[in-house]
Amino acid sequence: MTNRAFTELYPADNETAQYIKALIGLGAVIVGKSKMASFAAGENPGDWIDFHCPVNPRGDQYQSPGSSTAGAAASLAGYSWLDYSIGTDKFFPTANEDQQSLLDDYVCVLENYLKTTRTQFSLVERWADCPPEAAEGKSLKDYLGNSICQHYYYDAYHEYDGFWQDYRREYEKEPYVGPLVRFGWDKGASLTMEERDQGKARLAVFRQWFHETVMRQDLDSLSDAILVLPEGKLPFNILEILGENTLAMVLELPHLVLPVGQNSYQSRASGRTEYRPVSASLVGAKGSDLMLLTLAREAFLNAGWRTEVEIGRYTYPVPPDGLRNRTFRQSALR
Q1: Strand partners, 265
Q2: Are 293 and 226 in contact (CB under 8 A)?
Q3: How many CB atoms lie within 10 A of CB 259?
Q4: How far is CA 51 from CA 63, 66, 308, in A?
Q5: b/e for 182-206, b at 16 or more Cβ within 10 A?
Q6: Max Cα separation, the chain?
Q7: CB neighbours (10 Å) of residue 325?
Q8: Structure confidence by residue, pLDDT tens digits, 169-191
Q9: Taking the chain, what is the end-to-end CA distance rounded to the nearest angstrom?
């Protein structure tokens, strides 16, 4: 759990997770276990207290390696002999014009491949047009309220009830956890089971409404639409943690995140121009996981985009003119 108190209390686990067993059964070769944030809390490097955060090999090597699955992400970016890593991780417009340009290019590639055009879409507006009966006329923001907080924080705290009790009994003191974990657990400790169940019920209504009115399963294509999630500031923060990275998780939908380019920045650490990757995403209906992977690959190939990334400092080779790694893509966008 990347927490010293947890490591002091419990011996190393010697049982392999069912998901990993399934992968091994399909021929996967497991070569090691990577670091994760304590209790999968999504800590930034400065929040890592008991163990050192993995180094992100991109750019100046002082960029954040990600959220809870920091080690899995950093390992893929650093070792050419790794094909996959396994993680727990659970956008328009963006204020960065260069990044927005890369994302627009990505959407154009999808449009060209699918021979269709994008539709700007707002969950807030769709909800207002056809809200579920259970909402009783409330806006999406007002209906969801603190639903995710009530559900997520309550479960995140009480999942470790045994740990708290065992540690107090063994050492006669409180176990130490980092500030981000403490923040979440304090919220969870203040919630009742009734509040948790109420939040869970409202999320179920939201999920059913989405599946019935926004994105449906399709027998032929597996999904009657695909959703490109926005990057940047959302119209409002529905529930503290409900954003582009958690929406698909809440809706229980497949979410594919993939690199589409890289942006330059002036590094204070190295004192030179560095590059960091820019990512975009695809969300489809339930059961469309493999379809999304195939779609992304075929669309990239159709546009002449790379389907592999480099390891180390650069995600893609930097062209001689230093332009955001777009040289190899110009012909596909004309």
Answers
A1: 274
A2: no
A3: 18
A4: 17, 16, 31
A5: eebbebbeebeeebbebbbebbebb
A6: 69
A7: 24
A8: 999 999 999 988 999 899 999 99
A9: 49
